[in-house]
Design a protein that fits this description.
Blueprint (H helix, E strand, L loop, with lengths): L2 H12 L14 H13 L2 H10 L10 E2 L4 E2 L5 H16 L3 E6 L17 E2 L6 E2 H16 L5 E5 L4 H10 L10 E5 L2 E3 L1 E2 L14 E3 L5 H7 L2 H7 L4 E6 L10 H9 L4 E7 L9 E5 L2 E5 L6 H5 L11 E10 H7 L7 E5 L3 E2 L5 E2 L6 E5 L13 E4 L2 H4 L12 H14 L7
Parallel strand pairs: 2-20, 3-6, 3-11, 6-7, 12-20
Antiparallel strand pairs: 1-13, 4-5, 8-10, 9-19, 11-15, 12-15, 13-14, 16-19, 17-18
The structure holds uridine 5'-triphosphate.
């Protein structure tokens, strides 16, 4: 046995993960090398700590306060025009880049392949989520005569398929060289006993490290530098699974520029105090998001003098960052949160375990944990029916059926006037 095998074995013994080499002999030479490299690059100490933290109350002694926001539809007319003019200038000067986070596993949707390749049966013809977003960007490019550089974050799991999908579709006509792909980081998944999972291929079962991995991945893959070379000042970072995502919003840009904001987030009013969404707030004076699992009933129900919820601005995962804000956030890892997910894996007897029910732990960082590194953030409240059609579940709420209806209704509404 070579040196790296012995090194890997010693590492596994130290952390009680010896099962990972049980089927080593059955692998072909290439996979043998892959497996050893995987084992040697895992931070077992970090994983051990993450496992030990599961189920423990995250310390939460931060002072929570409401955060100011601007309602897009209540901005005074002159002010609105000013934001619009400034936002338009930024777009015409090519100051905006867009990142689409498409590295998620989309487990709830259960679609084979990257979520962006999911075809939504919209009018007048079905289109994939990638195509819908691409066309939204193309419209903005035409309007302002500048091409928005589009960066698509994938995961190791779906990068190849995503690229092939774009190539097969001639990049949906997006100008050559303006679409870039970059791959986010990943972490091993654990079973209930803290053992690292082996996938069907005999290699470690790794999963993307959450949308909060976007910053580390941007720095590691040279995207921040590339943006700076292109003179980019604003970076919209949004999801692949919202066909109504408004990525080049003049008002958001104008508002951010005037407020000298390091970041800006879109919100919509929480449907009711119990809705299971994270809401914008301040934690120890810094912009943040409080999750529905963290908020007390008293806070969730608290209202201001106008009867509006004090913590009622849902986080849409549609945020924009100033390039200096991104530099301030930096490449350091954000804290990990634990999710209990369905996974298919090989157990220590060599049997294939199919995850019909959640059976394993996955560790993810969240983009909004980065907000606390910034001093200020502008929040723009927009309308649900104009900007939010999430495709999360196979059926029922936030499913393709609800997204199609929302998308078709909105497109019908703006046919003549265009997007406000
Ligand atoms: P979600 O958190 O809804 O996850 O992602 P998901 O992977 O799409 O779906 P489930 O939870 O497995 O069913 C919100 C957005 O963040 C991206 C997703 O692709 C989506 O655009 N994301 C999520 C990443 O890019 N990487 C991740 O590791 C997680």
């Amino acid at each position: 046995m070579g040196n790296s095998y012995l090194e890997a074995k010693a590492k596994l013994e130290k952390y009680g993960q010896e099962h990972l080499l049980l089927f080593y002999d059955k692998l072909n030479p290439e996979d043998k090398e892959k497996l050893l490299n995987q084992i040697l690059s895992v931070d077992f100490e970090e994983l051990k700590k993450l496992y030990e933290q599961i189920g423990k109350q995250e310390e939460n002694d931060k002072k929570i306060e409401p955060i100011d926001f601007v309602d897009k539809y209540k901005i005074e007319k002159n002010q609105y025009e000013e934001y619009k003019k400034i936002g338009e200038e930024e777009l015409a000067e090519g100051k905006l880049a867009v990142i689409t986070m498409a590295g998620g596993q989309g487990t709830r949707l259960g679609h084979e392949g990257p979520k962006g390749t999911f075809i939504l049966n919209i009018k007048p013809e079905p289109k994939s989520l990638f195509q819908i977003l691409c066309e939204t960007l193309k419209k903005s490019n035409e309007k302002y005569g500048k091409i928005i550089p589009w960066y698509i974050m994938t995961s190791k799991e779906n990068n190849k398929q995503t690229k092939e999908f774009f190539e097969k579709n001639d990049f949906f006509g997006y100008p050559e060289g303006y679409i870039n792909f970059f791959i986010q980081g990943e972490l091993p998944m654990l079973d209930k006993n803290g053992k690292i999972l082996l996938g069907e291929d005999g290699l470690l079962k790794l999963a993307a490290d959450g949308h909060g991995g976007v910053f580390e991945a941007m720095f590691k893959s040279g995207i921040v530098e590339d943006m700076q070379n292109k003179g980019i000042e604003w970076v919209f970072v949004g999801p692949i699974d919202n066909p109504l995502v408004n990525m080049a919003d003049e008002i958001l840009l104008g508002l951010s520029k005037i407020k000298k904001a390091m970041a800006a987030g879109k919100s919509i009013i929480k449907a009711n105090p119990k809705e299971k969404v994270g809401v914008f707030c301040k934690k120890n004076g810094k912009p943040s998001v409080i999750e529905y699992t963290e908020i007390t009933d008293e806070m969730a129900n608290a209202t201001n003098n106008n009867g509006e919820l004090l913590y009622g601005e849902s986080h849409l995962n549609c945020n924009m960052f100033n390039i200096n804000g991104i530099k301030k956030i930096g490449a350091e890892k954000l804290p990990y949160h634990t999710a209990f997910k369905k996974a298919t894996y090989i157990d220590s007897k060599g049997d294939l375990i199919k995850g019909e029910e959640p059976n394993s732990y996955k560790f993810e960082s969240f983009i909004f944990d980065a907000f606390e590194k910034l001093d200020n953030m502008a929040i723009l409240r927009v309308k649900r029916e104009e900007e939010f059609a999430p495709v999360k579940n196979k059926e029922g709420v936030d499913s393709p059926a609800t997204a199609i209806e929302l998308y078709n209704n909105y497109m019908e509404k703006i046919k003549e006037k265009g997007r406000k």
